[in-house]
Description:
The protein has helices at residues 7-23, 30-40, 43-50, 55-66, 81-96, 104-113, 118-126, 130-145.
Amino acid sequence: MFEKFTERAKHTMMLAQEEARKLGHEYVGTGMMLLGVVEEGGTASKILDGFGVTLDTTREEVMALIGRGSGHVRVEIPFSDNAQRVFEIARQEAERRSIKDVAVPHLLLGLLSVQDTMAIRVFDVMGVNFNDVKQRVLEELDKSYGART
């Protein structure tokens, strides 16, 4: 599933899976993916930090919104349908820039593009305008990879 992801993006999704395990959930949703992006510590994490989105506050909000799961966690934790849509948007964004591998900022852009998700709800609760974050991510991608085609 992650063969077209950079090593950092793969690591970010492993962090998301670990967050799902910690919370006792049987799936990785967009809230856990957001936690993985924040925890990863790279460009996307720094962008979020600039908007006040830190690991501690994000984890608190995710916990408040979804709570703990049943605790019956499988070895392989699947990604939710919304998470799959995030992956598709991230792949499309990378392709628009003629980049072969999906990077963490592409994943963040995907999280910001799929509406009615836990990630968007976390931004709403935190008072963060996800469109402002999306614009900042696009600017950073333009600097790093050139403008989209």
